[in-house]
Structures are given as C-alpha cells and as structure tokens.
C-alpha cells in the first residue's frame, strides 16, 4: 500500500478488508480492538500460504478470516453461482 500513516488509518476501521499482496503486513497494533478483519491476501512463502494479516491480529479482532480457507471458498462458491446464473440467462434468451 502507498497510504501514508497506514497503521493510523487501519486502527480507525471497524471492518478492515486487507488485500495488499504483502504477507503478514497488518499487525495487531494496526487493528482497533473488536474490529472485524477480512484477509483477502494470498501469498506463497516457502511453500506455505500466508495472508496479508498476521495471525496475532486474532488477539485483538472480534473476527478474522483465515488464510487459507477464508474468503477463497466463498469466492469459488460465488463464481460457480454466477456461472450457473449466466448459463440459465443465456439459455432462456436474456438480452445483454
């Protein structure tokens, strides 16, 4: 991220969605106590998948999505649902 004073900005968030592409960038000091943190980042480091949020954030957040197994499965589920919806619309002759 190029945001100036990033820790200060993130500490103000009640819901923090992190998608930066830097493993374990966000630390617990950056997170407001009780915040909901959604880690969208997926980084492969030495054969392991790591998120953009350090696991220590779970100590202060009320909820933290895990990596792997957090938003990834939901992304796949929504992709499949939208693919089926598009196929049905196409089959039924829906206009673009």
TrEMBL record:
Which Pfam families does the annotation name? Answer: THF_DHG_CYH_C
For biological process, the GO terms are: tetrahydrofolate interconversion
List each copy of the Tetrahydrofolate dehydrogenase/cyclohydrolase NAD(P)-binding domain by range.
1-88
Gene3D superfamilies with a match to the protein in the record: Leucine Dehydrogenase, chain A, domain 1, NAD(P)-binding Rossmann-like Domain
Gene Ontology molecular function:
methenyltetrahydrofolate cyclohydrolase activity; methylenetetrahydrofolate dehydrogenase (NADP+) activity
InterPro entries reported for this sequence? NAD(P)-bd_dom_sf, THF_DH/CycHdrlase, THF_DH/CycHdrlase_CS, THF_DH/CycHdrlase_NAD-bd_dom
UniProt entry keywords in alphabetical sequence: Hydrolase, Oxidoreductase
| Any one cellular-component term (Gene Ontology) | cytosol
Q: What is this protein called?
A: methenyltetrahydrofolate cyclohydrolase
């Amino acid at each position: 991220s190029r945001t100036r004073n990033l820790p200060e900005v993130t500490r103000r968030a009640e819901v923090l969605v992190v998608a930066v592409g830097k493993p374990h960038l966000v630390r617990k000091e950056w997170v407001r106590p009780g915040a909901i943190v959604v880690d969208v980042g997926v980084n492969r480091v030495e054969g392991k998948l790591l998120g953009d949020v350090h696991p220590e954030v779970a100590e202060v957040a009320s909820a933290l999505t895990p990596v792997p197994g957090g938003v990834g499965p939901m992304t796949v589920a929504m992709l499949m649902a939208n693919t089926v919806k598009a196929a049905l619309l196409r089959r039924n002759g829906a206009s673009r």
